[in-house]
Amino acid sequence: MTRPAKLRLSGQPRAAVPTRIHNVETFRAVLLKWYYANRRDLPWRRTKDPYKIWLSEIMLQQTRVAAVLERYERFLMRFPTVQKLAAAKEASVLAVWSGLGYYRRARNLHAAAKVVVKEHAGEFPRTSAALRSLPGIGRYTSAAIASIAFGEPVAVVDGNVERVLARITKQSVAGEQVWITAGRILSPEHPGDFNQAMMELGATVCLPGDPKCSECPVSGSCRTRGPQPSLVKAPRQNKREITCALARRDGSVLLVQRSANEQLMPGMWELPQVTARASEQQLFSVRHSITVTDYRVQVVDGNGAQGIWVRRKRLNKLPLTGLTKKILLRAGIIENG
Ligand code: SF4
Fold first, then answer.
1. 136, 238, 267, 301: which has the fewest Cβ within 10 Å?
2. Mutate to test the pocket of ligand 1, among 30, 221, 224 (most ligand atoms within 8 A of CB)
3. Residue of the nearest CA to atom 3 in ligand 1?
4. How far apart, in whole angstroms, are the C-alpha atoms of residue 97 and residue 325?
């Protein structure tokens, strides 16, 4: 991504921008300058290809950047174009997605690719409004793709942007009000970069627990300069303990397939869950988080459990749940990659 030769300030009159930010033009200029100098070098920032930007935005929903980095290039190697993704079998898409969790995203990605190919001749719609007609693309994702790939002046709001805005304005902004405020401070000339700059500030400086105000480029515009616990609600994590049975026989592993009607991870393959008994031989334990639940998982010797024997060489072609993949990796049954 190239840096603009000269950063121009918006001509929008200040009186029309009631944002509780003293000088919006200066705020935009300072934030963008900081972003161009400090942004992380991420693969999806080196492209304007809407397919690649869309993929990154879907992967980054609910998933850490480090985890996405491992998967993004691999997914693009397997499905380099929207046409290749549209032509793939769903099981293949889920298998490549495996480990990222929230599998509904992968299903919607696949469905949306088919719509782009069949109804838009393989070209992504160029406006946020049109993008929202695609499966799995909501207000945030459509605005991100349209602003970054096509330069549409439309603001994005994610958890980072919401927190940054709450702190800068010292207001507990929520709902539609956040979108309105984000839209009013958006740089009309560099909307994609500005949106990414706001998210980058939240991800690297204005951190949820402990903002680095002394390093913050916009501290001069900030009414808070410090954590404001009352403005930010941390999601509560539940804790659960479960037991999974790991059984091996002649180069095969015992698995079960989740029902197609399950709300979470329908149709995916996993190790059978069993009721913990003191008599079972414990192999090891792992920790795993799914949405708002942290699991402590005991893995026990599963001989005697019910399921289907799957040959080891077939495992990387099956859509395995992230937890199952983690256990099979730990047991040395599959390898990363
Ligand atoms: S000064 Fe501190 S609280 Fe304000 S935006 Fe910067 S990092 Fe966040």
1. 238
2. 224
3. 225
4. 11
